[in-house]
């Protein structure tokens, strides 16, 4: 009975201005997860590989950038160098790991990226160090009063989240157009559908994958920068990948706009769960598993996510 | 040069189905087990027990558990450390709160409770599959960390979040106090020798059980579901039931391994050690050792656990003590393990066990070539 009563009050609290603020703030913070998710989906969509090394690539990029700037390298030079490094890493992964494993089953490809993940983890911390670095990109972090624009909406929103949302939206729109309206995008979609069939119609698999991994490297870098500014650069950045996981599963593994939607859902549900429902379960800190529970509920209803393609199976 | 089945004629179907068909293999197994049971307890020292033998066996059981879910049934899982934690806490609470409990029953309870948790978190596998299932097991992983943190009852309200396990929890014989008095042994039930023997017995029993399960209809159902679940359904295998019993058995093993991890290996109870990294380590063990192989689970555990120790000791021997710092060893072993995973996946997808099998095959047909 007690639990029921607290559940009722939790729901009652939810429909207030504070609830709305939490909701909006949560959605915006969920955008951070979308940033990670985009790289994931890009690789999955174009090669069917579930790239577990995403988080470590993020860490590697951020760590490289930070270490360079700490050695008095100019911001833009460091930016360019890191971009080049990430493209090279992407190409190396493609050449040495993905290409020999082409046409293998998806489980081995996934396992291979887990291996790459471990390798990069060691390499990143072996090359640079495992200390915690602060990053200051100059993204404003002060809150904005929404009521100045919309008078009846008296809530606070962080400028930083707005910036992250803009970056994520830009990437999503860009990639969406690229996939839908360019010739390379079309080949990418074909490859994701069926490696062998697309090879048979003459799509150069190797070239396509090289493009994808290079782009993924850069996306990881951008996401890594924003995450680093939010958190600071340390090993915990690799956990970003675990936050991206429920996001892509909700959105569907093959949908780039799905990342955005999934991020919004996970972010909002996480914050709402933590603030309104943690007491019901008897302790703070439920947000770690709450996100997965949310994702689970969604994919139980739609097993391939909201925008994911349904597989047609046959024997 | 190498023994083979030539001349060992099988005259009955029962013999044909025997677990170890070759006479020489049976001898090797018998000698090995006799050595582990009868010789090692006398010649081993605490370093070998505590830092090498016990953890290797415990982790082998955990990776065996994961191998049943992932390698044999094809259900990806990143929650093995979570299920280990459920097992450890179950064992502790049973030993703490039930008067007549002994360590064997506690381990059994640990396995069963972890197995039931496995069924709960495995239920989504009835509807979702592939990578989507990672969410469910990750949920288990993070859920246990929250649960044991939020409810200190499970830790008997220990303020530090760590419980040291008392010696009297390690009751492994009936009338143990009297027997120890009679033999004049000190009542250090948690001495490493006893822990080693407990671990060894459990490991042998569970490995035998696993070997027999995978060559019975249970195991064949698992493998059918792994290879293609729709086809399995068509030929009349109850896919849902098979998946759930794979989850139960897998998590049973993980639970027992978790209980042994805290009771036999580290000697205290702490939910922080069952973190996601441990889940990953267990996963590396089965990838390296070989998916869908009992032997592989052991080889993988031995390699992944043993490699950093080897590097440290080797470095100490070559460069003098303390030359290699722990960060270097850790990063190095990450790079090496990562590289080996990728190389093995490309050239020998079945891991060390596959490597061993191909060597064996070559020797068997020697002097001819494959």
Task: Please explain how this structure is put together.
The complex is a heterodimer of chains A (315) and B (370). The mean pLDDT of chain A is 81. The relative contact order of chain A is 0.19. Chain A is built from 12 helices and 2 strands. Chain A is an all-alpha fold. The two termini of chain B are 17 Å apart. Chain B has helices at residues 13-16, 23-43, 46-72, 80-97, 103-122, 134-150, 176-183, 192-214, 217-227, 229-234, 239-266, 276-289, 294-319, 326-347, 351-365; strands at residues 163-164, 268-269. In chain B, strands 1-2 form a two-stranded antiparallel ribbon. Classes of the chains: A mainly alpha (315), B mainly alpha (370).
**Beta strand count of chain A:** 2
Tell me which oligomeric state these chains represent. heterodimer
Percent of residues in beta strands of chain A: under 5%
Shape, per Cα inertia axes of chain A: globular
- H/E element order of chain B: HHHHHHEHHHHHEHHHH
Rg from Cα of chain A: 21 Å
Residues in β-strands, percent of chain B = under 5%
Q: Which ranges of chain A are low-confidence, i.e. pLDDT below 50, for 5 or more consecutive residues?
A: none
Report the mean per-residue pLDDT of chain A as an integer. 81
Largest interface: A-B, 50 and 47 residues
The separation of the N and C termini of chain B measures: 17 Å
Shape, principal axes of CA atoms of chain B: globular
For the record, the count of structural domains of chain A works out to: 1
Question: What's the short story on this structure?
Answer:
The complex is a heterodimer of chains A (315) and B (370). Chain A is mostly helical.
Helices, strands, pairings?
The complex is a heterodimer of chains A (315) and B (370).
Chain A: H1 2-14, H2 17-47, H3 54-70, H4 75-98, H5 106-127, E1 143-145, E2 156-158, H6 159-181, H7 183-193, H8 195-200, H9 205-231, H10 240-251, H11 256-281, H12 287-301
Antiparallel strand pairs in A: 1-2
Chain B: H1 13-16, H2 23-43, H3 46-72, H4 80-97, H5 103-122, H6 134-150, E1 163-164, H7 176-183, H8 192-214, H9 217-227, H10 229-234, H11 239-266, E2 268-269, H12 276-289, H13 294-319, H14 326-347, H15 351-365
Helix pairs in contact in B: 2-8, 3-8, 3-9, 3-11, 3-12, 3-13, 4-5, 4-6, 4-11, 5-11, 8-11, 9-11, 12-13, 12-15, 13-14, 13-15
């Amino acid at each position: 009975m007690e639990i029921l009563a607290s559940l009722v009050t939790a729901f009652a609290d939810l429909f207030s201005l504070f609830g709305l603020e939490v909701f909006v703030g949560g959605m915006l913070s969920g955008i951070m997860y979308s940033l990670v998710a985009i790289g994931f989906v890009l690789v999955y969509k174009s090669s069917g590989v579930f790239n577990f090394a995403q988080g470590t690539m993020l860490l590697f990029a951020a760590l490289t950038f930070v270490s360079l700037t700490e050695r008095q390298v100019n911001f833009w030079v460091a930016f360019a160098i890191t971009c080049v490094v990430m493209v090279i890493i992407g190409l190396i992964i493609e050449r040495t790991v993905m290409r020999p494993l082409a046409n293998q089953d998806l489980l081995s490809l996934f396992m291979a990226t887990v291996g790459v993940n471990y390798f990069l983890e060691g390499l990143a911390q072996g090359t640079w160090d495992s200390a915690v670095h602060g990053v200051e990109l100059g993204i404003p972090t002060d809150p904005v009063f929404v009521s100045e624009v919309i008078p009846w909406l008296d809530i606070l929103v962080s400028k930083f989240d707005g910036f992250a949302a803009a970056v994520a939206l830009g990437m999503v729109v860009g990639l969406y157009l690229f996939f839908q309206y360019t010739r390379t995008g079309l080949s990418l979609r074909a490859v994701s559908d069926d490696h062998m069939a697309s090879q048979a119609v003459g799509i150069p698999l190797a070239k396509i994958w090289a493009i994808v991994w290079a782009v993924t490297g850069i996306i990881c870098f951008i996401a890594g920068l924003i995450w680093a500014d939010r958190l600071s650069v340390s090993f915990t950045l690799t956990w970003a990948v675990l936050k991206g996981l429920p996001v892509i599963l909700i959105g569907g593994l093959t949908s780039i706009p799905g990342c955005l939607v999934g991020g919004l859902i996970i972010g909002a549900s996480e914050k709402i769960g933590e603030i309104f429902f943690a007491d019901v379960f008897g302790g703070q800190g439920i947000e770690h598993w709450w996100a997965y529970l949310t994702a689970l509920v969604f994919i139980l209803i739609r097993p391939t996510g909201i925008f994911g393609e349904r597989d047609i199976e046959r024997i | 040069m190498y023994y083979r089945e030539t001349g060992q004629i099988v005259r009955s179907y029962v013999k044909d189905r025997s677990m170890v068909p070759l006479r020489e293999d049976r001898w090797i197994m018998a000698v090995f087990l006799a050595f582990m049971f009868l010789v090692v307890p006398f010649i081993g020292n605490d370093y070998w027990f505590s830092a090498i033998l016990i953890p290797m066996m415990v982790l082998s059981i955990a990776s065996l558990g994961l191998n049943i879910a992932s390698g044999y049934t094809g259900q990806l899982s990143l929650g093995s450390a979570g299920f280990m934690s459920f097992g450890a806490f179950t064992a502790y609470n049973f030993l703490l709160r039930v008067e007549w409990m002994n360590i064997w029953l506690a381990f059994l309870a640990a396995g069963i409770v972890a197995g039931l948790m496995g069924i709960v978190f495995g239920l989504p596998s009835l509807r979702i599959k592939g990578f989507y299932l990672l969410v469910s097991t990750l949920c288990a992983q993070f859920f246990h960390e929250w649960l044991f943190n939020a409810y200190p009852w499970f830790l008997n309200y220990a303020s530090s979040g760590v419980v040291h396990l008392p010696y009297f929890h390690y009751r492994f014989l009936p009338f143990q106090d009297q027997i120890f008095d009679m033999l004049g042994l000190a009542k250090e039930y948690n001495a490493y020798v006893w822990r080693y023997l407990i671990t060894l017995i459990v490991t042998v029993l569970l490995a035998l059980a696993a070997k027999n399960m995978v060559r019975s209809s249970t195991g064949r159902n698992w493998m059918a579901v792994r290879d293609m679940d729709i086809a399995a359904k068509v030929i009349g295998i109850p896919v849902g039931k098979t998946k759930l019993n794979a989850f139960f058995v897998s998590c049973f093993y993980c639970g027992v391994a978790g209980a042994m991890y805290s009771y036999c290996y580290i000697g205290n109870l702490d939910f922080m050690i069952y973190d996601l990294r441990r889940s990953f380590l267990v996963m590396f063990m089965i990838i390296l050792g070989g998916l869908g192989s009992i032997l592989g689970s052991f080889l993988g555990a031995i390699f992944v656990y043993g490699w950093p120790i080897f590097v440290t000791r080797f470095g100490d021997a070559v460069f003098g003590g303390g030359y290699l710092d722990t960060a270097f060893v850790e990063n190095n072993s990450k790079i090496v393990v990562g590289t080996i995973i990728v190389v093995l996946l490309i050239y020998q997808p079945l891991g060390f066990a596959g490597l061993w099998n191909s060597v064996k095959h070559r020797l068997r047909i020697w002097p001819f070539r494959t």
